[in-house]
Prior knowledge:
A: four-stranded antiparallel sheet, 23% strand, extended, B: elongated
Amino acid sequence: MRDSRGSWYLLTGLVLGAAIGLVLSIFIFPAQYVDVTPSALKAADRDQYRALIARAYLVEADNGRAVARLALLEDPRPADALVEQAQQEMGVEGNEQTSRALALLAAAVSQKQLVITPLPRISGAITAPQAVTHTPDNQVTTTSVPPTRTPGATITPRATATAQPTQGAPYELAEQKEVCEAQGSGSLLQVYVFNAAEEGVPAVRVEVSFTNGGVESFYTGLYPEVSPGYADYAMVEGMTYNLRVGDAGQLVQNLSIPQCENENGGTFPGSIQLIFKQP
Amino acid sequence: MRKGRLIAFIFAILLGAAAGLMYGWLYYPAKISAGSLQSLRADYKADYVLMVAELYATDANLENAVDLLDRIKPADPIGAVQRGLLTAQDMGYADWEMRLIADLEIALQQQAQETAP
């Protein structure tokens, strides 16, 4: 008797085996990654790496090095990735410094000529009586430094609050006007910050407080296509805001959504434009 | 005859499984980004350690430095810095960069000694 069932069972076996192999290799025994480049990092680790690059940039103030480090991540548009992450970090308590660093680096990527003042190093913060030496066989050893005669009393430098780069004189309000543009863009507090040389200043903290006691902050430089010194904040109908630029800038009070008139005599909510300058 | 078909069926399953494993281990990983900071190559880890050392040099915040180092070598921040120092030496880092990393290592060792029972 001839078997007329054909060879379909072989195809069934192949498909079954392939399914088993895929499940094993992807879910049960996934590949272990070693010696990867930053571009192969998963999203969360890429963000951590990018944030560290930005924070190191504040210390080094070396645009070339920061850009070269960013290039390792192979982001299609590095400045956009920095801005996006800066906005995400802004909403997390305690991450203002990181958000600011990301915004500043985004500005540096967009404007090659941008120069920042590096954060000062705390000299004398580490006064360990030990020295690290490297032996020829690449073993790190720590040896005690022999005691020496103590010099006369000096003032020991203390750790201070982290300084902010590119700070200068407090910002003053130079111009305030209502903006009545086409509807649809929302009601914004449009803030422009310029230095004494009339250049837009990125990474300046803008603090908005509400009449009910709440406070929010945001930074300039997230929209370099508008101006490196530009930032905006969406206002809510019925709320009154106070706004300050920088840590010691002039306080602008009682800001609320202005009402604009359209061609038909009706009204629509407008925006407020505030221009701050350093004297 | 039936025994022959059974052997061929098992052989087909094994062949399919081998193909599935190869796809999952060799081709599929190349299409996704799933590496962690722990799996970074040694030279990138050394640069990471340098960035942490630079931050520590400005804020003297050892807790933050340990938190960052934990991401490349969990529970062994001193080991991470030592490894970074050796790689940095091999790669010819500048003296001031080596000094920064060494300062961080000294601070970590001091802390470890202070917290040791």
